[in-house]
Amino acid sequence: MRCNWPDLEGQSIALLARLSRADSLARIQLWPDHVDVFIGSGEGDDYHERSFEGRGVSSFDAATGAEIDTALTETTAPGSATGNAGSVTAIRGSVECGDQTPGTSDVTITGETLLGPVQGAVLDPVRVECADTPAGNEISASGLVQVGSDEVLMSLGLSSDRTITVDKTTASGSGRYHADGRWTSSANGGFVEADVLEQAVTSPRALHLSGDLTCGRDAAG
Questions:
Q1: Contact yes or no for 130/138 (Cβ under 8 A)
Q2: Fewer C-beta within 10 Å: the chain N or C terminus?
Q3: pLDDT tens for residues 193-221?
Q4: DSSP code string of 12-81
């Protein structure tokens, strides 16, 4: 479960649940006025999803939790391949965030995007997650940046091999930036100083990242 989850629609609460069928997962995203439920089945190219929506969300606070009690209506796009993904008709329960904290980031982002220039922007709101993997420390951070009149969701991925990715999502599309590596771990986060280049375009734009990331705490931490 992830509370204080930044998104283009606002802050939400995201959950992932394993269903009774071994190959099925439920992705649940809670908003102040509705809940989105995605039922997935399979793996790789054989993975398929069906989507559902309900309106019965109350007492919502992205930092503390919510109550859910609603019938669900399928919103899967007509003609979509759904494979063996199951269906769901209702959802009921409560979510408590416990002592989760979102972490902090003072990383500044400067450079060019398809929507225009960015000058010293910071991710706000932001959620920072850290993981100690067998290969080494990894950090991910997601947050919103204002580019002109547009809001952009940027997700930073700092991998154990020291590579850096930045995924940029807007209402009209997405893109990715990459660098071979210029970040260092600290006791409770990391520091990044890098120029990341846009991928899969003829004339790549560049973004400069500089600053510290502090890990958030999950509900068990």
A1: yes
A2: C
A3: 999 999 999 999 999 999 999 999 985 43
A4: EEEEEEE-SSTTEEEEEEE-SS-EEEEEEESSGGG-EEEEEEE--EEEEETTTEEEEEEE-EE-PPTT--
- Check residue 21 and give its pLDDT: 66
Residues 6+ apart with CB under 8 A from 149: none
Spacing of C-alpha 78 from chain mean position: 26
Tokens of 151: 């809001």
pTM across the whole model: 0.86
Q: For residue 12, which amino acid is it?
A: S
- The residue written with tokens 């099925």 in the block is 24
Distance, in Å, from the CA atom of 68 to the CA atom of 64, rounded to the nearest integer, reads 14
Judge whether 127 and 99 are in contact, CB under 8 Å.
Answer: no
- The residues that bridge with 145 in the sheet, in sequence order, are 152
> What's the chain's length in residues?
221
